[in-house]
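Researcher: Please generate the 3D structure of the following complex. Treat every line as part of one assembly.
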Amino acid sequence: MTTVQTPVPADRPPRRESGVANVFSHGFLLLWAAMTILPLAWMLLSSLKSNGEIIADPWGLPEALRFDNWARAWTTAHIGRFFVNSLVVVAGSLSLTMLLGATAAYVFARYEFRGRQAVYYLFVGGMMFPVFLALVPLFFVVRSVGLLGTWPGLILVYTAYSLPFTVFFLTAFFRTLPTSVAEAAMIDGCGHFRLFFRVMLPMARPGLISVGIFNFLSHWNQFLLPQVLIPGDGPDRMLAQGLSSLAVSQGYAGDYAQLFAGLTIAVLPVLVVYVAFQRQIQAGLTAGQLK
Amino acid sequence: MRHGRYPLILSFLLPPLALYGIFVLSPYLQAFQISTTDWLGYSAQADQVGLANFRTLLHDGYVWNALRNNAILLAVVPVVTIALGLFFASMLTMGGRKGRAGVTGVRGTALYRLVYFFPQVLSVVIIALLWKEIYSPTSGLLNGALRAIGLTSTPAWLGDPRFAFWCVLAVMVWSNVGFYVVLFGAAMQAIPRDIYEAVLLDGASRATMLRKITIPLLWDTIQVAWIYLAIAALDGFILVQLMTNGGPNFSSDVIGLRMYDTSFGSENKFGYASAIGVAMFFLTLSVAVLALRTARRDRIEYS
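Model: Done. Output below.
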C-alpha cells in the first residue's frame, strides 16, 4: 500500500487494491469471528459430552447428546436455583435503580433549587471511584444495618452504585426533552407528580431503555459485590458465585461436563436475548460509555 | 408553575440521596480513615497509626509485583485493543469494494458486529471460567489443537509462571475488542461519506485514509476508549482471581487481587487493605487525568 501510485484520471475510480485487499480483510475478519465463536461452540459441545470424551479429545464431537449433564448442573449443582436468585435480585435492583435514577435526574434537569450544582456533582462524582476503595467499609455498613447476606442488602447496594451513572445519563436526557410539552400540560392543570409520571417519563423512554440495558447487564454480571456481601456458600448466592464454586468443585470431582453444562445454562438466555435485541443492546452499551 | 415544587423535589431527591450517602459516599470516606489505622479482622480494636500503612506499602514486594503486572496491562491492553478495534471497524465500515470508490462495508457487516460484540454481554465470570478450561493442560481446546498439529510437549499455560499472566492478558483483549469495533464503527458511520470519496479520488490508499482521516476524526472516541481500557487494566480482578488466583508464584497477581486477599481472603488486615484501596484510587485518578491530558487535541466538528 506504500507503493507510488500513478495518478488516476478523475473519471475512472481507482480500483487497484480491491481484489487483494478484500481477500486479505475478509481473512482477518473471519479469523476473529472464529476466535469469538469457537470457545462458545466448544463450551456448548462439551456440555453434551461425557467426561471421558472431554479429556480424551477436546476437539471431538459428542458421540451421544448427553442432556443429563444439564440436568445434573441444574439440580445437583443448584445452577437453576442460583439463576432464579440472580433474576429476583436483578429485577429488584433494576426497578429501584430506574425509579430512583429517573426521579433524581428529573429534578436535577428540570428544577432550580439552591445547591443544585453542588449536589449534582457530589452525586455523579461516585462514578469515578474504584469500587475496591469502598469494599471494606461497605461490608461493615451493610452488616450494621442488618442486611449482610440478604437479597435486600444486595439490591440496595447495586442500586446505590448504579445511581451516579444512571442520574448522569438521564439528567442529560431529560434536558433534551422539549419544555413546551411540559408547559402545555401544566396549563391544562397537570400537577408536578402527574406531569412526571404521565408526560415526562413516557417521553424519556429511549433514554430509559438505553440506561436500563446497561444497568441490567452490569447487575447481572456482578461478582465482586455479591462475593463480599453474600459471604459463605449458602443457597442464597448469585449465579456468578454458584458458577465459580462449581468450577472449584469440578476441579476435585473431575466433572468437566457438569461445569460446561452450568456455563451453557448461564449463557443461553443471554445469547437469545442478545440476538433478539442486538441493535438496542449495542446502542445502549456504546451510548452508555460515550456520554 | 412554582406551586407544589418542593414536595416533588424532596420526595424525588431524598431517597436516592439517602441510598447514595449510606452505601457509596460514607464507605468511600470511611475507607480513607480506615487506611490510617491498624484494624485487623473483626475486632473493634483499631488504633490510629498515621501513614504507617502507606510506608509499609512502599516496601511491600507483593504489592510492587502486582503493580508491575497492572502497569504491563496498562501499556499493552489499551493499545492492542484499540488497534484491533480500529482495524476491524474500518474493515467493516469501508473495507468493501462496492460502488465507485469503495467506502461501503464488507458483505456481512451486521453479522460480524453481532458475533464480535457477544463477549461484551457475557459475564466476566463466565469468560474467566471458560478460558480457564480452554487453557487446561490436558482437556483444553488450545493444547488439543497443538497436539493435533503434532506437538508432543504442550505447555501448562496457566500453570506456567512464564505464560500465566499473558494468557490472562489475552483474554482481557479478547473480551474487549468487539465492543470497540462497534463503538468505533458507530463513530465512523457519522463521518460524511464525501470526505472519503474526495480523498480516494485524490489517490490516497486505505492505510493513508485510516491514518490521515479516520483516526483524527475519531480522536474523541479513541480518547474515551483509552480511558475506559486504562481503568479496566487497573482492575483485572475477576479474570485473575478466577483463572489463576494470582499464581503460579504470584506471576499473574494484580493490585485488585492483592487488596481483596488482604481484606477478605487469606488475611483480614482491613487497615492495610484500605491503604491499598486508597493507592488504587489515586492511581486510577492520575491515569484518567493523564490520559485526558495527553489525548487532548482540537475537537473537529463536521455538520
